[in-house]
Amino acid sequence: MLKTLGTFFRMLRTGWVLVRHDALVPSEYEKAVPWFVGLFGSLSRIFAIRGRADNPGERFANALEQLGPAYIKFGQILSTRGDMLDPVFVKGLSRLKDKVPPFDMKKAEDMLAVEWGVPWQEKLDSLSEPIAAASVAQVHKGRLKSGEEVAVKILRPNIRTAMRRDMDVLHMVAGLAEFFVPDTKRLGPKAFVSTADRAVMLELDLRLEAAAASELSEAAVETGFFKVPEIYWELGGKDVLVTEWIDGKALSDDSILTDPNYKPVEIARKVMQTFLATSFDYGVFHADMHEGNMIAQPDGTLVLIDFGILGRLSPQEQRFHAEILYGFIQRDYLRIAEVHFEAGYVPAHHTIEDFASALRSVGEPIFGRLANDVSMSRVLLQLFEITEIFDMEMQPQLIMLQKTMMQSEGVCRRLDPKFDMWSTAEPIVSSSMRRELGLEGRLGDFLDNMDRARRTLEKLPDATENIAALAQAWANGDVDLSKGVGVPGSPQKPRKSLPFAWAGLGALVTLGGVWAASQL
User: Fold this and answer.
1) Quick one: DSSP state of residue 239?
2) Where are the beta strands (DSSP E) in 231-309?
3) Closest alpha carbon to 244 in 134, 121, 113, 153
4) For residue 296, what are the β-bridge partners?
5) Phi, psi of 20 (to 5 degrees)
6) 43 CB neighbour count, 10 Å cutoff
7) Which of 111, 139, 339, 418 is the one with CA 20 to 30 A from 322?
8) C-alpha to C-alpha distance for 142 and 264, rounded to whole angstroms
9) 449-505: pLDDT as tens digits
10) Which is it for strands 310-312 and 284-286: parallel, antiparallel or unpaired?
11) Residue 374 has pLDDT above 70, yes or no
């Protein structure tokens, strides 16, 4: 009860911080929202602190920094979508990618001493002030005793407690959203937050990040599309990660667009090919591909960093989504529709033909067109309307894929306004489909089915004995199969308690802020 009350008041604080920064319903966008939301925004600005930044995105970024790391993550995602949001707003948000204020150098040194058991001077020749700081950690440049330059990543102090509190607020908001706005249940906000919660909390153990980097390094070598920095395992721990130092420019650096030593068009192509190849060919991908987590080197090498969030696809999901993208490339809308029905994404009471026609209405206007000729906000709005018409629910297991796809495509658009998604994706997806649907894929399916059959046969003797025992018990009158058989001691489904009646105002304040941000 006390924890719930604490979470509720933190939720109210979220709305208050947004109001104080004039970031709940920014004055610049008051005419773009319904009149009652605009009226609420006007009234809320009575409490806004004067002298805040002129850029509404910068005000929003300031508010998110004050609120905590989970909110900063949200801002990072928004900052990659300059094609969907006001470019001025996005520019104000852009510093959240890698320019969050760092924590004190003394605290960083103390954390290294705790992790290593000795002062950092016994492991390193030098350690710089923070080079870059993000929502959960900051990076220092160091030099080993052997002379190699390294990146030393250190988690923020008390970050796990802060992130846990942020996620508790988001859980409450999601629950209240489903309660007060029943239409949101189809989008599964509670499932969405639960999936994000698990991914974010895994990010707070740098040993797992090192393992993720190591796993993706195999795909890096085999594809040649990107590079992963070398890991110094002996210096790593739960709160510290040490890797090879990478010289180059982060893709968040605006100078990369004009520096003659860099080729942004080629970099954009590598970004998308990296995402597609790792997703569809390996079933594992970097799930936080914003510009601050990618570095371009002058020789054209794309380097991925910060592997705290890793996305995964099952073999079946890999095939389904490769087929969907391949279907769009081939303009085979009927096959795309069939795949959706086979995967269970569309309820069976709809027809494949009707869904294929709806997909055609999305695909044909954008097929073969370059990025600057396509309004992604309009495309996504149309897709959203289609999911509602065909009763499609959010697929929690695909949240990371969908989020990363949007991030990657947004990065590519910034690097290359004429980015051609179709020609970039075609060789990767075609290769994946040849493997999945060709001899290799069919043979793999056959072997998988044989293995499932083997496991079933192994269980058959036990199942036969159980059936025989049940039949004997029935014959002896020990079991009455005409009635439902309850399992003694099984837990009863708990009754759902209603939210506090007085929680409505706080929920609407917070949800209003999130909704307004999504409309910017």
Assistant:
1) S
2) 240-244, 249-250, 284-286, 294-296, 302-304
3) 153
4) 249, 302
5) -60, -30
6) 11
7) 418
8) 29
9) 566 666 766 676 776 777 777 777 767 776 665 554 444 444 444 433 333 333 333
10) antiparallel
11) no
Distances (CA, A) of 28 to 33, 51, 59, 246: 11, 15, 12, 40
CA dihedral 277, 281, 283, 287 (to 10 degrees): 0
Look at residues 374, 406, 79, 421 and name the one whose alpha carbon lies nearest to residue 273. Answer: 421
Picking from 251, 228, 252, 250, the residue whose alpha carbon sits closest to that of residue 241 is 228
Whether 302 and 296 have beta carbons less than 8 Å apart is answered as yes
The distance between the two most distant Cα atoms of the chain, rounded to a whole number of Å, is 87
Residue labelled with tokens 């520096």: 259
- Give pTM, 2 decimals: 0.70
Residue 273, classed as helix, strand or coil, is: helix
Strand, coil or helix: what is 126?
strand
Residues sharing a CB contact under 8 Å with residue 121, sequence separation 6 or more, in sequence order: none
Sign of the torsion angle spanned by Cα atoms 355, 358, 362, 367: positive
What's 75's DSSP letter?
H
Quick one: which of 288, 69, 287, 66 has its CA closest to 164?
A: 69
Which token pair is 4? 């719930």
For residue 229, what are the contacts with CB-CB under 8 A and spacing of at least 6? Answer: 151, 213, 243, 244, 245, 246, 303, 305
Instruction: Provide the 10 A C-beta neighbour count for residue 305.
Output: 23
Residue 330 contacts by C-beta under 8 Å, 6 or more apart in sequence? Answer: none
In single-letter form, the type of residue at position 229 comes to P
**SS3 of residue 146 by DSSP:** coil
**How far apart are alpha carbons 191 and 186 in whole angstroms?**
10
Residues in the chain: 520
Amino acid letter at 402? Q
**Are residues 228 and 259 in contact, defined by beta-carbon separation less than 8 angstroms?**
no
Rounded CA gap, 417 and 482, in Å? 68
Q: Which helix (H) or strand (E) holds 102?
A: none
Q: Which amino acid is at 318?
A: Q
Question: Is 306 annotated in the active site?
Answer: no
Report the distance separating Cα 133 and Cα 185, nearest Å: 36
Please provide residue 139's backbone torsions phi and psi, each rounded to the nearest 5 degrees.
Answer: -120, 135
The torsion angle over the Cα atoms of residues 116, 122, 127 and 132, rounded to 10 degrees, is -10
Catalytic residue among 168, 197, 288, 416: 288
Tens digit of pLDDT for each residue in 90-142?
A: 777 776 766 678 999 999 999 999 999 999 999 999 999 999 888 889 999 99
